[in-house]
Task: structure prediction
Amino acid sequence: MAKAFTHIQAPRLLTSARPAGAPDRLALSVSSNFPEAVALVTRLYDQFGFDTVDNSPLSESWRTGPGQPAWIRHAHQNREELALNLSRARRRAPV
Result:
């Protein structure tokens, strides 16, 4: 099991893809407890035109949730920016 495609809107999958190495290529995260699942999603993201940031294990997938920096900046972050935004995430207290 892997958590993927969590912080991109579906229409952007068709409009934001870029070739590998493009300076404006966006990155998406994947979280999983299984390295082979991360590898599969990484290949899929690359085929779709996106870079990957591994945000494993699955228990860390909350970092891409609504209101978190990676979620807010989903349309404008490359690999380095996404990694930074994942590190900036803060758990919210239960309501």
Residues 35-48 form the longest helix (14 residues). The CA atoms of residues 21 and 51 lie 9 Å apart. The chain has a mean pLDDT of 93.
